[in-house]
Specification:
It is a single chain. By secondary structure, the protein is mainly alpha-helical. The chain has one domain. A hairpin with a 6-residue loop joins strand 3 and strand 4. The longest helix is centred in the first third of the chain and has 25 residues. The relative contact order is 0.19.
Amino acid sequence: MSEELAALEDWINDTIESLGARDRRRVLTTIGRDLRRNTSRRMMAQVGPDGRKWAARKDGSRKKMFKRLRLAKNLKTKATADQVKIGFSGRAGAIARVHHYGLRDRVTSRGVRVKYQSREMLGLSALDGERVTNIVSQWIKGE
């Protein structure tokens, strides 16, 4: 899988480098928007980028996790002519980091600390790679 992503990254880099700075920023903005949307959908389905289901909640409830964390105001994209970034910032970033890596965090004001299960939120799936390829191809064709 990583070899496929490396080959895809090389092809995209070569193709995007042939564009002007303004066009590169536009295509990367489109890619970032699409990747953010897919990441949000994966979070809603409670599935990691590799397709595995997240660990269940400790209390066994069926409530969906991270309802607000997956909103566009918390799951940010930033595109420049050279790169696109997708991630969390501020307090949302702190919460996401704890759950993404399965770290310890304080639950109450009294200082009770809990170890959370790792729930990978950010990353590229095989479907994301195909979608990025399609976006770049359509951009080049002028569609």
